[in-house]
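@channel anyone free to eyeball this complex?
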Amino acid sequence: MNKGRLEAFSDGVLAVIITIMVLEMKSPHEPSLAALRPLISVLLSYVLSFVYIGIYWNNHHHLLHATQRVNGATLWANLHLLFWLSLIPFTTAWMGENHFEAWPVAVYGMVLLLAGVAYFILTKALIKLHGRGSPLATSIGRDRKGQISIMIYAAAIPLAFARPWIAGAFYVLVAIMWLIPDPRIERTLAQ
Amino acid sequence: MNKGRLEAFSDGVLAVIITIMVLEMKSPHEPSLAALRPLISVLLSYVLSFVYIGIYWNNHHHLLHATQRVNGATLWANLHLLFWLSLIPFTTAWMGENHFEAWPVAVYGMVLLLAGVAYFILTKALIKLHGRGSPLATSIGRDRKGQISIMIYAAAIPLAFARPWIAGAFYVLVAIMWLIPDPRIERTLAQ
Amino acid sequence: MNKGRLEAFSDGVLAVIITIMVLEMKSPHEPSLAALRPLISVLLSYVLSFVYIGIYWNNHHHLLHATQRVNGATLWANLHLLFWLSLIPFTTAWMGENHFEAWPVAVYGMVLLLAGVAYFILTKALIKLHGRGSPLATSIGRDRKGQISIMIYAAAIPLAFARPWIAGAFYVLVAIMWLIPDPRIERTLAQ
Amino acid sequence: MNKGRLEAFSDGVLAVIITIMVLEMKSPHEPSLAALRPLISVLLSYVLSFVYIGIYWNNHHHLLHATQRVNGATLWANLHLLFWLSLIPFTTAWMGENHFEAWPVAVYGMVLLLAGVAYFILTKALIKLHGRGSPLATSIGRDRKGQISIMIYAAAIPLAFARPWIAGAFYVLVAIMWLIPDPRIERTLAQ
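replying in thread with the prediction:
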């Protein structure tokens, strides 16, 4: 089975997700600077989610690049990942509109956590298909970064109820960690 | 005529359908857990439709993979399928917002039924083009699964007026039946 | 310059146009059959526009298939066509919501007319680039169907103010005329 | 690393951006010509933004065509550009709904300015990757047009507070300047 359409479909879904989020930033009815002020938290929330979808697209790009073939299980593992990512516009809007209050921040983190787990499942499904000694398996290795991300999300969720901004800072931290391109896969591919 | 653009266009439409459905899950104006409660049926309805669009994408992927060429009739049979699938965001929103009441559940089933019929027509148009002895025709075979799905939808629609949850359970049943990847096409392709 | 990205971008825009139109069919807040009745004209209007976008995608597919290369002028002629097509969700919603009243029906026709003219300009730009004796030019020929469509739209627009349903019938007529696949290009390609 | 998916993802995002802008043109509830009048400034604003997204797609197409490979830095430079472009539907709606008042016109210009800077950064990242003597670097040259655009935006923003229409005229001027296809890249590619 060919990986081309899996990439095309994922690109399509991610492109729509990253773009429709901006629809939640409703244009104010008044032409004043003051009318933009309530949108600041919506914009911040949008920027964070834009970066996250960008990271997922980027990692997905790397992962599928190292992939030779796909099967039914990986198609569904990929759709499972897209499902959690498709909830990001909702959690982004809820968090932005409510100025980073406890519950929206916690739910935002839960969706990130579940997307992280879904990505982990996708890598496992791909490794199972290609074999443990395959270049794909070697390039992913132990995936410490993915595991650390999931741990940080898990820590951030309860923290959101005490200090939402700390949870928010944790999400930003994970994003920064991922913004640095993954040297493992690039190194292996270069060999 | 080339099948590449047919796949690309279908991927685009399915990617937009699967993603805009989430726009119906309006983010609540209050940052409390209670504010999420009315969205549970919207979310359930979204999950079901997400899985259905995923199944159609998956089957479409398999079907087109076994396809060698397309003509005017298959282009229109494909658009006809996309038309019924494009109504799924509407029926999903109606069913979710009205907590799985009789009419929305019945109309949801009617659209599934018509999409199922449209998929059947598409397979027939492709078999006609490739010939009865073609690998495509052999791989589809008698398409029992497709026929059973249509029968289950047809049974569910009247049941929705007596017990909507039974109709809903039937839709879930069909989805589970399809989640198992189609061994017929995979087997034939492997030969 | 490569035609691949022109096709990909056009497919993307057409896929979004055909799908976001359905967002205008707002799901009713009540779960009764009566609640669907006001949506009948919205649905009819959606079906007509879905078929039109399908026709444009189909013809665009044929046209680009016969195309060997593109240049700056054809890129802009193509964007000009996409611009008019992008207004179809707006005119569709206006016509559907207002139950096929005079002005919405007339404006719907104007956008169809301008899209028809834009398609004509695109074919001219492509013929100019490939030369009058090219297979593309031969396959398009005098494009009687395109010219007749434009004339029917031009006749329908004033008629919309007397009898909107006659104008609507004219739009359906053009759609039926185009549903029959274009034998000119197919014939030339087959040679 | 392959540039194909970067192009596909960018095409997807630009296709969604250019199309969802039209959702801001809400269809009026009355079927009269008078009901369309308040939409004139929304339509003008839409046309301007449609042309701008078209220009960016066109330039992006040329730029990536001359590109041989991409790396992590260029992927992120590209996402940075898409981020600013994704804000255009918002600024378009705000400017259109408020009939080209000072603040919306100024903010519209700021987003154009930042998108211009992001495009400049993208070209620098690509030149750095391909080397100063590469065909890509030669074809871009000193990029006077890009630099002039940024200067015009910077001049237009303060002017928006004195005479919004002058700022608007400046945006139209830049658009016209870019509508003429870029001879530099085409010339170099032709060699």
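from a first look: Chain C has a mean pLDDT of 90.
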